[in-house]
Amino acid sequence: MVAASFIGLFIGVYLDKWLGTTPWMTLIWLGIGIVAGFRNIFILTRRGMRELDQDDKEDQKYDGSD
């Protein structure tokens, strides 16, 4: 999440200096970076939960309990 936020921040700062639109590009790209970071956390959490559910199902199968 932190990396995505910093990447968005640096892109925004660069565009603001290049286009002279201070602070608008910085704010927009920082927002995009924060959203991307939260999206990555959501995807990783969902993947981890799915793996835990599969492990639980395999454990139940080997234990003989339902």
- Number of helical segments with 4 or more residues: 2
Give helix and strand order, one letter per element, not per position.
Answer: HH
Quickly count the domains. Answer: 1
Oligomer: single chain
Strand content: under 5%
Which structural class fits the helix and strand makeup?
mainly alpha
- Cα-atom radius of gyration: 20 Å
How are the SSEs ordered, and which strands pair?
Layout: H1 2-19, H2 24-63
What does this structure look like?
By secondary structure, the chain is mainly α. It has one domain. It contains two helices and no strands. It has helices spanning 2-19, 24-63. It is rod-shaped.
Short description:
With 66 residues, the chain is mainly α. The chain has one domain (2-63). The protein has helices spanning 2-19, 24-63.
Index terms:
single chain; 88% helix; 66 residues; rod-shaped; mainly alpha
